[in-house]
């Protein structure tokens, strides 16, 4: 198969995974917020393959200028065997919010200068980079809007082929999504990215759908990218099946849900053992679903460790604080959840 066509198809599939998130009330307000997902592959019939599950962590790093706009910048690492795998963040996304619209910056990450493509083809794909109004929260339900459309010409077996790459989106009816962190009434967006050959009409080579569910103050609570079957009979080849994937939240390693009973109030318990060396368990109870932060401070009030920084559903939880790299002394840990805030003291003795 013509190598240029293969590369274009690979890029097209990657585009379908880029547009899948956000307008300001739907995005967490605090930097440092982390999302923990499981990534479950889908076979050619879109059946989950749980034995091949990997994990992804997104981190709201900073709000800063990003390619011409002020953006919420998210760092990501994906395809980890476990959530505690020591892997550097290897991807970056930018989000900008204007009124009821959420813009996402499209980065063509698969095009290093060393890639074996003509410079014209490289410039064609790089020309797609930019800000796109992907999340139009006030758009009428069921009405499609175009994100981009761009044409180019390549040679396949000495035949000039007119190609078109385009993407569109539409808002669907809101849905209630059940997750390990509770239920969310989410905005639902369907994205379609397609590669077409243009004769008199458009003939689809590959069309990659993608659906995301976005919840207030939480961002993505579910994402499904179905498997894609690519028919290349037009070029004298067979078909290619590209597996799909489904992202759903998981409770991060280090936070253990020890009871799903709904407490009648928020509680931060005294750590045990106390005094401790070097580890100690901290338990807390969450009355209602929402953003929870548990942080440890030294005696001077400097934050030294964030133990919890994500959405949790009601229940009782425990996590472990590791003081092996700290000196003896008094430390404080503070739990905030909604309007609740409480601080307790603990003593590390070595």
Main attributes?
350 residues; 12-stranded antiparallel beta sheet; mainly beta; 2 domains; single chain; Immunoglobulin-like; YmcC-like fold; 4-stranded antiparallel beta sheet
Q: TL;DR of this structure?
A:
The protein is mainly beta and 350 residues long. 6% of the residues lie in helices and 57% in strands.
Secondary-structure topology with pairs:
Blueprint: H1 3-16, E1 34-42, E2 54-66, E3 69-80, E4 91-98, E5 101-106, H2 119-126, E6 130-136, E7 144-156, E8 159-179, E9 182-198, E10 202-215, E11 219-225, E12 228-231, E13 239-242, E14 244-249, E15 255-259, E16 267-268, E17 279-286, E18 290-297, E19 303-312, E20 315-322, E21 329-337, E22 340-348
Antiparallel strand pairs: 1-2, 1-14, 2-3, 3-4, 4-5, 5-6, 7-8, 8-9, 9-10, 10-11, 11-14, 12-13, 15-20, 16-17, 17-20, 18-19, 18-21, 21-22
Any overview of this molecule?
- The chain has 350 residues and is mainly beta.
- The chain folds into 2 domains: 247 residues, YmcC-like fold, CATH 2.40.360; 94 residues, Immunoglobulin-like.
- 6% of the residues lie in helices and 57% in strands.
- The protein has 2 helices and 22 strands.
- The strands form 4 sheets. It has a 12-stranded antiparallel sheet with strand order 6-5-4-3-2-1-14-11-10-9-8-7, with helices on one face.
- Strand 9 and strand 10 form a beta hairpin.
- The mean pLDDT is 87.
């Amino acid at each position: 198969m013509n190598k240029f066509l293969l590369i274009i198809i690979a890029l097209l599939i990657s585009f379908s995974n880029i547009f899948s998130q956000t307008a300001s009330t739907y995005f967490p307000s605090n930097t440092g917020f982390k999302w923990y997902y499981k990534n479950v592959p889908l076979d050619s019939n879109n059946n989950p393959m749980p034995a091949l599950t990997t994990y992804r962590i997104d981190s709201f790093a900073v709000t800063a200028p990003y390619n011409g706009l002020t953006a919420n910048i998210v760092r990501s690492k994906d395809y980890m065997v476990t959530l505690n795998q020591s892997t550097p963040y290897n991807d970056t996304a930018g989000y900008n919010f204007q009124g009821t619209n959420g813009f996402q910056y499209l980065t063509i990450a698969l095009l290093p200068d060393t890639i074996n493509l003509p410079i014209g083809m490289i410039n064609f794909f790089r020309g797609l980079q930019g800000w796109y109004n992907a999340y139009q929260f006030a758009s009428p339900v069921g009405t499609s809007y175009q994100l981009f459309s761009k044409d180019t010409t390549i040679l396949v077996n000495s035949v000039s082929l007119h190609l078109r790459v385009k993407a569109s989106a539409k808002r669907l009816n809101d849905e209630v999504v059940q997750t390990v962190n509770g239920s969310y009434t989410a905005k639902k967006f369907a994205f379609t990215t397609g590669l077409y050959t243009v004769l008199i009409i458009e003939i689809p080579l590959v069309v990659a759908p993608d659906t995301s569910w976005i919840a207030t103050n939480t961002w993505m609570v579910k994402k499904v990218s179905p498997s894609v079957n690519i028919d290349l009979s037009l070029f004298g080849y067979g078909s290619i099946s590209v597996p799909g994937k489904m992202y759903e939240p998981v409770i991060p390693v280090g936070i253990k849900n020890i009871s799903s009973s709904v407490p009648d109030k928020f509680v931060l318990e005294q750590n045990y053992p106390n005094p401790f060396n070097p580890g100690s368990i901290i338990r807390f109870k969450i009355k209602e679903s929402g953003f929870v932060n548990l942080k440890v401070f030294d005696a001077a009030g400097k934050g030294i460790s964030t133990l919890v920084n994500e959405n949790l559903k009601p229940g009782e939880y425990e996590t472990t604080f590791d003081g092996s790299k700290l000196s003896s002394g008094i430390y404080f840990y503070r739990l905030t959840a909604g309007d609740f805030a409480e601080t307790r003291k603990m003593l590390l003795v070595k």
